[in-house]
Amino acid sequence: MDKAEIIRIAVKAGTAAAIKHIEQEKSKEIKSRQGKRLYNTKLLLQNYNTLKDHCANSISNLQEFVHNENAIDILDSLDSCNNNTYIESIKRSTTRTYIILAHIDEMMKLYKSYSQSSSKPEEIRRYRVMDAVYLDELKMSDVCEREKIDRSTYFRDINEISKKISALIFGIYGLSVMRQR
Q: What's the pTM?
């Protein structure tokens, strides 16, 4: 083997290794973003009523601002926030809160429609669980008793609800969270 052949093989191997590394890093970044979106969806659902109250008690006229921003862009811009400041960042801007909640409200309506039209009893139950936990703010024990489910089913339902709501909230980007199941 001559020197040129060795260089060609080395360049090819180095290029393949670099491409593989770049793809792995990109995959890690995508998984991280998906995990963040799922976590943020859970935070939004857990703080739904607080955020609603925040908007209801605001004195600013929000209707004029709503058309200038997009809920997904707002939510994605908050990716740089740490977990403790995510909800506080949303609450700082009543306009943003209003836009996000309007989007979440629509996605919850879609989820309700999807669940109620399902022939699977667990999908219908999951909507009731979502409604009880996030809208009515019932305790886990009360939800379990009402639905006649155990704790593990409750937590499984919460995870499935979060994945589906996240997919609805984030659209095409949220679907990748559901594909990981």
A: 0.63
